[in-house]
Inverse folding.
């Protein structure tokens, strides 16, 4: 599993050579392609999730900053 | 007296937001209400308001106030022989960003306050667009300075400092696909245990209410180093459908490992409407200090906890999202309505009080763009 993860990571770094011309990006600018599609809507759920799992970071919000139960 | 001070602080926060909105001539604002309830008898109600504006071209500021009102009679509280409790946490978030050509600078400050916990957090970040904006490199660093208290014990205050560093690389692959890699390093130093959690020692399944059971406070090391590595990707299938996927690997100095996988399918029936269905899978191993059963004091290590969040478990979550924008009048550019609802199933493999927990979460939002 970790070997596959690193392979994908390295491939994504090599993909840095690729460029997509601005006139080709119309589809990428639509709201369903946003990395954060609805941050106001998901902030509560992400916060609750971060305090109910032993891990945090790299996805959504980070844990810390409250004594939440 | 304490309650009056709390209400005065809330009022001051709301007034600050209002003044901020007037002063910056807010261009967009939103209010949301988050609700969560679970079978561990915990309920969270969290209203939030946010205003944002482009102060001058290239400079954006946002401010948000939120409150978490939670009521709980969870197993953590029952094992420490406490009654059900209700508590409120107030949080103020301030953010600013500045675009300088292909570079964007970000700064954020967060203050969170509750009767037994106070936190100040600051984040600085930079994002650099490269290769004709086909590649984006992001770096950020956060520092949280927390004070951990214990209700009913004014002498008990401990410090907890947390540092987080994050690097991300986003790459456009083709006109309908992007991919992102994120690494986050976190280091916490200070009081990391819960001042309310106890370990009941005795045969069977003792709680602190069990006669003859011995109860000791949980103890955890003062340091924790965390690593999280994630890959995210999104691809448009056609003009209306898009797929998203992400995977995260997490490991820390307490020997806790986890895997998180997410998949998303979104559908845009029109330019103003978005429907999405998300599935999230999560699995973690136990932290090395987790002890599910302690029948005698001699079994108790130097560090020990019975925190279910440090026990081995898996979870499955399904989330349905609906967003819709409405053009109202010339005064408002548009109104934005949103709703998400999602059940989560937690399956605990080594937590004696229960094997499963279900939760239901929902958020509704109303936003306006002026």
């Amino acid at each position: 599993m970790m070997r596959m993860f690193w392979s994908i990571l390295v491939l994504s770094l090599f993909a840095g050579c690729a460029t997509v011309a601005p006139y080709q990006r119309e589809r990428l600018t639509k709201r369903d392609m946003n990395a954060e599609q609805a941050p106001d809507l998901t902030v509560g759920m992400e916060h609750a999730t971060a305090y109910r799992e032993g891990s945090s970071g790299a996805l959504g919000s980070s844990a810390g900053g409250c004594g939440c139960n | 007296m304490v309650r009056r001070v709390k209400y005065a602080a809330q009022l001051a926060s709301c007034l600050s937001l209002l003044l901020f909105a007037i002063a910056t001539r807010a261009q967009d604002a939103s209010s949301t209400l988050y609700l969560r309830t679970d079978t561990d008898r915990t309920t969270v109600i969290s209203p939030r308001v946010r205003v944002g504006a482009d102060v001058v071209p290239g400079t954006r500021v946002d401010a948000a106030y939120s409150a978490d009102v939670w009521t709980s009679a969870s197993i953590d509280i029952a094992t420490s022989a406490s009654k059900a409790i209700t508590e409120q946490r107030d949080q103020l978030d301030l953010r600013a960003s500045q675009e300088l050509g292909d570079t964007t600078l970000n700064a954020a400050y967060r203050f969170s306050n509750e009767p037994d916990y106070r936190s100040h957090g600051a984040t600085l970040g930079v994002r650099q667009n490269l290769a004709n904006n086909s590649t984006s490199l992001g770096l950020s660093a956060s520092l949280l300075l927390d004070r951990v208290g214990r209700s009913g014990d004014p002498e008990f205050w401990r410090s907890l400092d947390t540092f987080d560093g994050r690097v991300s690389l986003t790459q456009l692959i083709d006109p309908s696909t992007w991919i992102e890699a994120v690494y986050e390093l976190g280091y916490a130093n200070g009081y990391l245990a819960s001042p309310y959690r106890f370990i009941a020692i005795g045969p069977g399944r003792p709680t602190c209410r069990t006669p003859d059971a011995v109860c000791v406070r949980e103890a955890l090391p003062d340091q924790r180093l965390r690593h999280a590595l994630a890959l995210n990707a999104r691809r448009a299938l056609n003009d209306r459908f898009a797929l998203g996927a992400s995977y995260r690997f997490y490991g820390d100095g307490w020997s806790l490992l986890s895997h998180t996988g997410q998949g998303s399918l979104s559908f845009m029936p029109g330019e103003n409407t978005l429907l999405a269905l998300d599935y999230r899978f999560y699995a973690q191993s136990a932290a090395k200090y987790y002890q599910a059963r302690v029948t005698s004091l001699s079994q108790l290590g130097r560090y020990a906890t019975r925190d279910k969040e440090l026990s081995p478990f898996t979870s499955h979550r399904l989330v349905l999202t609906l967003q819709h924008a409405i053009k109202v009048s010339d005064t408002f550019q548009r109104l934005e309505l949103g709703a998400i609802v999602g059940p989560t199933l937690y399956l605990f493999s080594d937590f004696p009080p229960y094997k499963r927990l279900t939760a239901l979460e929902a958020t509704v939002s109303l936003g306006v763009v002026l």
Q: What stands out?
A: The helical segments of chain A are 2-14, 39-50.
